[in-house]
Amino acid sequence: MQEWLTPAILDQVAEICRRAGAVIMPHFEAEDMAFENKDDARKSQVTAADTEAEALILPALAALNPAIPIVAEEEVAAGRVPDVSGGEFWLVDPLDGTKEFIKKIPEFTVNIGLIRNGRPVLGVVYSPASNDMYAGSEALGQAWQERNGQARKPLAVRPVDAKGITICLSRTYGQSVELTRFLERFKVEKQVDAGSSIKFCLIARGEADVYPRYGGSMEWDTAAAHAVLNAAGGRVCRIDDGPELAYGKPEFRNSYFVAWGGPEV
Fold this sequence. Notes:
Blueprint: H1 7-29, E1 35-37, E2 45-47, H2 48-64, E3 70-72, H3 73-77, E4 88-96, H4 98-102, E5 109-116, E6 119-127, E7 132-137, E8 142-146, E9 153-154, E10 165-170, H5 177-183, E11 188-194, H6 198-204, E12 210-213, H7 219-231, E13 235-238, E14 257-260
């Protein structure tokens, strides 16, 4: 079968993310924002922006290649889960960082990632509020950013300086005993609190070194940013330098993980 994944596909996925962001922003800027609580273990919220953005993304991705299944957060919540046994599928989070979104904190993203045989091979992360786009694919040899609509620049992680690291932590989830023990291994020079998959992007930009996640997350939360970070020279592995975080797991639920920048110097 002819390879369908090309640089043009990466550009098209980026444009889909941008269009989804245009759907989301009027909801963010509105004075009133209604939301509902999902019946899930994480007590997630969902807004009209989530569902409208996903409704735009699904047919747009299907038009790129109708043979590729799409696993999307709100579709799964509604019980519509495709068969991904073929090994290749999309993972979509139409609005990552809904908690920040509801609080009017502009740290939310649109995430689209492509999985092949358990690995993320293409990813796009778009921040509608800042108009920042991050895209990457190891398979295509591309990792780039567009900051506030400016010209594309390459993404590349920086070497990790053991004398003082910059660590990214979730703005929403508090510090745990496990996280405290993890941090004891390093001299933390700076801590950056952020929402959504922006934390991965800070590492891919060479502005941070590590993001440990001792808490629940789903595959659509991480796949796109994982692909971007891989393409920029970083890695995402299970906690304590275990194997790379894999995809297509039961219920699409992640284990604890840590995202790293470059090698230690």
